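Hi there,

I know you've been waiting on this one. I reran it after we fixed the sequence typo, so this is the corrected version. Both the input and the resulting structure follow.
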Amino acid sequence: MPKVYSTGESDSKTRLQMFSGQNTIFKSAQPNLDLAVTRSSDLRIMIVATDVKKAVPWTGPDSLETDGSDLFNLLGKPSSIHCITNDLNVVSLPKSITPAKLKALVIPVNGEKVDVAEYRVDKNQVVAPEIAIQRAEKKKRVQQLITMKKIWTAIREYDQKHRSLPVRRWNDKHFDQDQNPKLSWRVHILPFLKEDELYNQFKLDEPWDSPHNAELLAKMPEVFREPADPPEATATRIKLLKGPKTALPTKELPKFSEIPFDTILLIRTGQETAVPWTKPEDADFDPNHPKSILGQLDDNILCITCTGDIHAYSLEIPDELFRAIVIPIGTQDGRKVLTDEIKPWDAL
């Protein structure tokens, strides 16, 4: 199927169709050419994009046969009606348009005229659906990386003040009997995210799920959210990368200056792996199954190194190459990743 007929959902079906029936432009096998391209006072819809469930094989002789009734159902009840009128303008009609007005644009009733000037789209700004999808995905990915950069900056500022990554061991009350922090590092960097008011509401000597601290779960800052998260979301996918041979191999957290150069520090994992944002839980790396920490991602592997470099890797990156990115140079099994090796997997 040529790209001109594609709207991104199928390789063989198109949503672009024409109305047919009595008094439509294409009322028979012989189109009404007098109406096909005419003055705007006789405005009619020539081509319309249906809802995806109404898509048809692009080579088939299908059309939207209508007498003007129940047009919304005929189109599949799309959220908006994108069409080309016979004055060769692109028009985006809102879902709120009345049935009478829509019918008048398909089959005029008693000479009724519909003014669609406010719905006309600048044709210079119209892009193919697949390009629009790509642009939207890239914009979302860039926004997620910017958010991760903000978190990295807060961790960096914490380190500059406390000479340690969060959580610094300066108060035993912040740790349990196994020397695990009671609250996530995400809580401890709140002052560096300009969230002092929220930070001061926590009882740092109590576990994340204590009655008092549990009430603060609902106040998750935007920086830990996903663009598609509902307002009531309390879980985050942003985690520190920890485990044997990583930048953070033990409970004794190092300073930034002690982490091997260009080693992954933060990573975004799949939705099903999200954790309560105040819970001291992160991504535990398994060298034998390098990408198991990722969960089920539907886009790219987003991460940021200890030096603040942001990366988006393809999900198809080989295990051995991803392992080499995670394990710092100089450790056992660690090796330098060459630019030529990683470039094909760079999704930015």
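Quick highlight: The CA atoms of residues 24 and 107 lie 5 Å apart.

Best,
R. S.
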